[in-house]
Specification:
The structure is a homotetramer. The first copy, chain A, is an all-alpha fold. The first copy, chain A, has 11 helices and no strands. Chains in contact: A-B, A-C, A-D, B-C, B-D, C-D. At the A-B interface, helix 2, helix 6, helix 8, helix 10 and helix 11 of A face helix 9, helix 10 and helix 11 of B.
């Protein structure tokens, strides 16, 4: 097995046989770490999915106010242990990767790093910014996506309707802005607090056209209500159509997949 | 007619002719109880569907506060009578079933038992837990599903999009968690009561991304509102796409059914 | 032209030529009243559609409180005049109909009668019930549907998904009831006013599963919120799927129509 | 190059060579201004899209109350400069257009004019109406649409379902009116403020059937709630179906486009 495929990163001066051995171990480990063909590979994956869920649950419980001291202590330990394990995983993935640079700068390589880095930075600094850094831990969740196979069909579907999605995203932004402009004109005098500026009105437009309708801002003038009706008649579709587009594209992606499998 | 198909459960020492007679009666009763081919079978089904509706309505009215004493008494009697009838139905089904064990542990066998058991347990115990047991009566409703035929096409459709539904359920959970994490970061300082922990924020995420929007929790900071907008643009589709998927899968299931019927 | 096609209703003893003349006039009038082939027929239809809109607008404005006396008087006259015209139209349609009995008991025959009858009954009685009778005037609106042609494709589409719609309507009712039962269990103790009975809980279930979410009733307990999340994950689809079904059935109805027109 | 294609508008008495030169310059400029084939044309387009975004953002920020004096001054200057540039663009487009009259009365010709006109009118009048005129600036946003190509497929899709969209718009209006009529009957006595007239009830119908549900008006009587349930069961679909229709029509438009490209 030639080492030509390994990009030279930190090739130390070691005896050739030693290096060849390590290369073969790396090859074997890579199959476990990067693929799910083998039983060991599947176990490795399941273990880390389980660890991610534990880390997420632990982090969520930590946000609860008035936690008993013992539980807070326990969760702190869970955090330390999971971060250490995730760090080991990152280093392992870096070591076994065919191209280390490509992994380090790949989507999941960056996420794997961002999932552990804040912990060390936070310990070092221990200041205001800690909280913002912790938010990055959110990326850990995306690791779950790594293991899903149905996602490829979703990507095909997104590719099929990419242009329409961009168009409707642009149209939705236009409609949102136009709605905000209109309601600002009708309501800003009647409700100077709720519709004080175009940005306040945009908040109304977002909650209304997505049909969330919290009820914190709503038109009270006759003009504003008629305008809301008109906006909803047109805007509802523009905000909601992309959903239908993705759904029908997924059906098409499934059909394309079936046609391909039938033609073989 | 051989008795070989009957699984030996409680075969008493009876004269052969007597047993053969009973077996033939069982055979005839089974057609009435389990199928809807015969007129008697359809009548049997309709009667029990009607009884389920009566039991459900009676139970619902019982929850109303300030019921007149007479009505409360009447509803109590309706409850006793329907439970007795449902118990008789359960025993009948158990008796006529080709394999008694298989029925007893089948989905509807368990439901039929759970629908009557709490009544007897409650009478025996009459304590705190009674209320929780009564909730199981809800399963009676699922009996209605037993009699629907269009449901088979629905099952085909669900099978077609099973993988996508799982993917989107997972994505929806991820998006819900990520939204809760984000809004917690933006709003927890401004509204420590409403967004006091990640679990409070999850409640906001659920009511927002499903577009229910009760209005009990909503962002008030500029950052929280911009974040809500971004989350809705992406998350709305992920929560709503499965609906479109099931709809188009149902169309496909109908087409598959037609093709099959045309090819005969 | 033989009179055989006219069902004998009130055939008076008139000279044959006179009666033949009337029959021919009826024939000509029928084309104007019942079809839109001729210019006069289209004008007749447009005139009555316009009158329906006037009657509806006039009725709506009448509900406004604090109307000036002059306007109230004017609207009263508009009401009298439109009712008289609609009565004349009803009698005309009755006279020209090929089969008078069939028209009188047809869907639109009944609606045409119900649209004018309350006015005369109300003038006669002038009591409490007047208001309820006026509600029937709503049926006038359905006259607009009479003139739409695209509606036939909609009927084909509804026929295609009839079984699924019934199934999902049944499922939706089950899910609504089950949701109400569950939330009643979780919330009735915490909010005895809002979730006082299963019927109060059903109101919550309706506003939640349709994602309207007024915000007048919502769960406050942790159990109730988790239950709401679970119910929404399953129930949202069941309530929303029929919409997608009808949409895809309409596409199919359009395709069927095109195929038929191509095959000719 | 003949001048025959130029519609005679203000052909001055100039030497033939001079006029021919100008015509060739116009020809070259037209390619830059009206098309995106050339590098200069794409740059021209991008510059103006960027300017529209700047003008929109500047206008939005201007609506914020309590702006510092310096920023207000700066935004005023941004407004003057963008309007001057847009005016120059309008005149340029008018000059290079093959048919000036056709451009002046085309959709985008009118919009380009309406986007700058209010500024000059407002400076001249400086009175109450200024605010209303400013609203017209909204049309500037539509310029963005000019540059989208995916919009042609959207137009095909709208053409495919035009009849259904009109039918459902009519049905939606009918359902809205019928809902308002019904809830007015049930709730006007219990809530004379919220459901004071049919127009108040229409506002409820709009917020309910679009599932926005602000929570400012909702039924409180048992009859009104049952009616709301019935209305939602039927009306939800009628208001939401058009969205699904447009989505499936877009899929069809994409398929038609692919078939056409394959057949070549």
């Amino acid at each position: 097995m030639s080492l030509g495929i390994v990009d030279g990163h930190c090739e130390l001066a070691l005896p050739a046989s030693w290096r060849q051995n390590a290369a073969m171990n790396r090859e074997a480990l890579r199959r476990v770490v990067e693929t799910t063909d083998t039983k060991a590979g599947r176990r490795f994956d399941l273990t880390f999915q389980f660890l991610i869920v534990i880390a997420v649950v632990s982090f969520s419980v930590q946000t609860l106010p008035d936690l008993p001291e013992g539980l807070r202590h326990l969760l702190g330990w869970v955090e330390v242990i999971t971060v250490v394990i995730f760090t080991a995983e990152y280093l392992l993935r870096l070591w076994v990767a065919e191209s280390r640079i490509r992994y380090a700068f790949s989507f999941f390589g960056v996420i794997d790093l961002l999932a552990v880095l804040p912990f060390y930075l936070a310990s070092g600094i221990d200041l205001r910014g800690v909280r913002a850094f912790r938010l990055l831990r959110l990326f850990r969740l995306f690791k779950l996506l790594r293991y899903s196979r149905a996602i490829s069909r979703f990507r095909v579907a997104l590719g099929l309707v990419r242009e329409e999605l961009i168009l409707f995203a642009a149209l939705a932004l236009l409609v949102l802005y136009a709605s905000a402009l209109g309601i600002y004109y009708f309501e800003s005098r009647a409700q100077p607090d709720e519709f004080g500026s175009l940005f306040h009105s945009l908040w109304w437009a977002v909650t209304t056209l997505t049909t969330v309708g919290y009820g914190d801002v709503y038109p009270v003038t006759a003009g504003g209500r008629v305008f809301t009706f008109l906006v909803l008649m047109v805007g509802l579709g523009i905000v909601a159509v992309p959903t239908g587009l993705v759904a029908s594209a997924l059906s098409e992606a499934r059909r394309l997949e079936q046609e391909r499998s039938h033609s073989y």
